[in-house]
Specification:
The structure holds two protein chains of two kinds. Chain A has six helices and eleven strands. In chain A, helix 5 crosses helix 6. Chain A is an alpha/beta fold. Chain B is of the alpha/beta class. The chains are: A alpha/beta, B alpha/beta. Chains A and B meet through helix 4, helix 5 and helix 6 of A and helix 3 and helix 4 of B.
Chain lengths: ~230, ~220
């Protein structure tokens, strides 16, 4: 019998998220972000959050909304441009920022979920990222030790899901979502479409339900585009 | 002297049949417009696509389908999507044959700086450090000098580094150079550019092997 992870709505899904916690939030730019849950975090008013997310949204969408309310204490990201409020809080010292190479960020999430406490990578050797991290030579090349990143809650967004917590992502909206799903102590998945159990083909599941504790269908999705680039119709 | 499209066109000549290629933001993106005829290459974007296609036609944009510059794109037949750890496994695991990226400074030993200017807003390195630390073949596409007319080819980088000793080749508006023997080894001149002009615009050690440096054919 399948284990039921379905919760009624975003309020129920986000229950237990408290001020001071560490959260992982999936998405690359505004692509594949858990927009319903972010809106709920704004409503809940939790603050002093440490947010692990590749980017920090834009001023009025994505994690930018949490920055507006000064709910974030620290951001752990690889790239944080395109956000004026972020810049203001960072320069004034209100916001702590830890910048991590994108591949290391992804692998540190994956490692946490896979029970690997740390790994060596060549990325960042000889740069500010190296800092005091252990350096070791492998095959004649220097590598630095990076540790797994854990989170109290991981909040991811998928295209389709079922009540078992199985998830399928769409196109490049996949990005960090499957990795963060693995890393959260509690993983919340919001999906565009929650389908009846048995409808998803087990051959095509991207994230097996074992990594997900709560799943719900988002009430609505704006899916904002950050850089709309097109060519004229042929 | 080349313009940005000229630099991209020259780099496109480095593409080989069967290459998987990662193109950075800026001039590198233009390389995709000049794929030599008769060869098959696939473009990887590190946010999670292989087989990236051109921008969509107006009205066909999909918020779920973007490149690493967050621009809406299309997928070619045979494309594949994957998560960010798999994407950087392709990069670190050297499955991607060529990386083309821009830079603010290059040192004669192959060091690259392209992510941070002290005193200015820091935006982050994104995937640049993973790319330069692992790629087998890195070509830098950039203007030879900055907006103030200062050389970007130096003995040592003054800006915080992105990677150490990793650049193999530099293509600028003035020249093609390889990093060899702790110097910028001059391989080709841009059309109409003299050796003296290249020497003047290069602060680092420029190695000029003889007087007959060929002119680029583009």
């Amino acid at each position: 019998m399948a284990i039921n992870k379905k919760v009624a709505n975003v309020e129920e899904a986000c229950k237990g998220i408290k001020s001071g916690m560490t959260l992982m939030l999936g998405g690359f730019g505004l692509c594949g972000i858990p927009e319903n849950s972010i809106a709920e975090l704004v409503k809940m008013g939790v603050n002093e959050l440490t947010c692990i997310s590749n980017n920090a949204g834009v001023d009025d969408f994505g994690l930018g909304l949490l920055l507006q309310g000064k709910q974030i204490k620290k951001m752990i990201s690889s790239y944080v441009g395109e956000n004026d409020e972020f810049e203001r809080q960072m320069l004034s010292g209100e916001l702590e920022v830890d910048l991590i190479p994108q591949g290391s960020l992804a692998e540190r999430c994956r490692a946490a979920g896979a029970g690997i406490p740390a790994f060596f990578t060549p990325a960042g050797y000889g740069t500010e990222v190296q800092g005091r991290k252990e350096v070791r030579m492998f095959k004649g090349k220097p590598h630095i030790l990076e540790t797994a990143l854990e989170a109290d809650f991981a909040i991811v967004k998928a295209w389709k899901g079922d009540s078992s917590g199985n998830l399928i992502f769409k196109a490049t909206a996949k990005n960090f979502n499957p990795l963060m799903a693995m890393a959260g102590k509690i993983t919340i998945a919001e999906v565009e479409e929650l389908v009846p159990l048995g409808e998803l083909d087990p051959n095509e599941i991207h994230t097996p339900g074992i990594f997900v504790q709560r799943v719900f269908q988002g009430a609505k999705y704006e899916k904002r585009i950050e850089q709309r680039t097109t060519q004229p119709k042929a | 002297m080349l313009d940005k499209n000229g630099i991209a066109k020259r780099i496109a000549q480095e593409l080989q049949h069967g290459y998987y290629v990662n193109l950075g933001i800026g001039i590198p993106t233009l390389v995709a417009n000049y794929i030599p005829e008769g060869i098959e290459v696939e473009f990887q974007s590190e946010n999670g696509i292989l087989g990236m296609g051109p921008f969509p036609e107006e009205g066909d944009e999909d918020a779920d389908l973007i490149n690493a510059g967050k621009q809406t794109i299309t997928a070619m037949p045979g494309a594949a999507y994957f998560d960010s750890a798999t994407s950087f496994a392709m990069i670190r695991g050297r499955h991607v044959q060529l990386t083309v990226l821009g830079a603010m400074e290059i040192a004669q030993n192959g060091d690259i700086a392209n992510w941070k200017i002290p005193g200015r807003m820091v935006k982050g390195m994104g995937g640049a450090m993973d790319l330069v630390a692992s790629a087998e073949n890195i070509i830098v596409a950039m203007m030879h000098t900055n907006k103030r007319g200062e050389s970007k080819l130096l003995e040592k980088c003054s800006l915080p580094l992105t990677g150490v000793g990793c650049v193999k080749k530099v293509v600028t508006n003035l020249a093609v150079m390889e990093i060899r023997d702790n110097g910028f080894y001059l391989v080709e001149r841009a059309p109409g550019v003299s050796i003296d002009e290249i020497v003047d615009a290069t602060d680092g050690r420029l190695i000029v092997p003889g007087d007959n440096i060929p002119e680029m054919e583009i």
